[in-house]
Amino acid sequence: MNNEFNPGDTVWCARIQSIKEHITCDICQGQKYLTVIMGDGSQVTIDCTGCQSGYDPPKGYITTCKQEANSVCTKIDNIRINADGAEYITVEGYCGKNRMFATKKEADLRAAELGNEYEAEQRHRLEHTKENDKRTWAWNAAYHHRKIKEHQKQIEYHTARLNVADINAKKQKQQESKP
């Protein structure tokens, strides 16, 4: 069997990489704490639970993951040959079939294809999986419709509560500024 690459060759590997991204906490705006006005008008600061994780203290940011298609230059460490052809194993670890290329341009094109395939797979999963597989699609639609209504009511309620807090804070500032 004739392999395109051999151990020790430098190649470009197309891949999809999961990248952690830090987003400023929208609750504390990166301050790591919140100021609460008590019923008697006194103020206390509390840890922000929006950017707190488990027993760890607040960080001021939220960590999310996003997928990024890219290519990396690497060396082939080993070759595994099976009925489907050659699988190249790189110094960093297994890279899979049809992902090794001699040039960065070829690898970048394949990485873009992999990214598109990944997004299509995620869309397919979203469109074709139900919240509860033991229920019908009609139940699934009714469930999500009900949840949307519940969340809209919650948004209206919490928006009204924030507006009341703003009004009361302004009144308090006006009272404090009067001699």
Characterise this structure.
- By secondary structure, this protein is of the alpha+beta class.
- The chain has two domains: about 1-25 and about 60-130, no CATH class; about 135-179.
- It has helices spanning about 105-130, 135-175; strands at about 10-25, 35, 45, 60-80, 85-90, 100.
- It has a four-stranded antiparallel sheet.
Helical residue percent band:
25-40%
Q: Give the low-pLDDT segments.
A: none
Order of secondary-structure elements: EEEEEEHH
Overall structural class, as computed from helix and strand content, comes to: alpha+beta
First and last CA, distance = 93 Å
Q: How many E-type strands?
A: 6
The overall pLDDT average reads 83
- Whole-number count of domains: 2
Radius of gyration: 27 Å
Trace the largest sheet across and list its strands: 5-4-1-6
Shape: elongated
Tell me the fraction of residues in β-strands, as a range.
25-35%
Count of DSSP-assigned helices: 2
User: How can the largest sheet be summarized?
Assistant: 4 strands, antiparallel
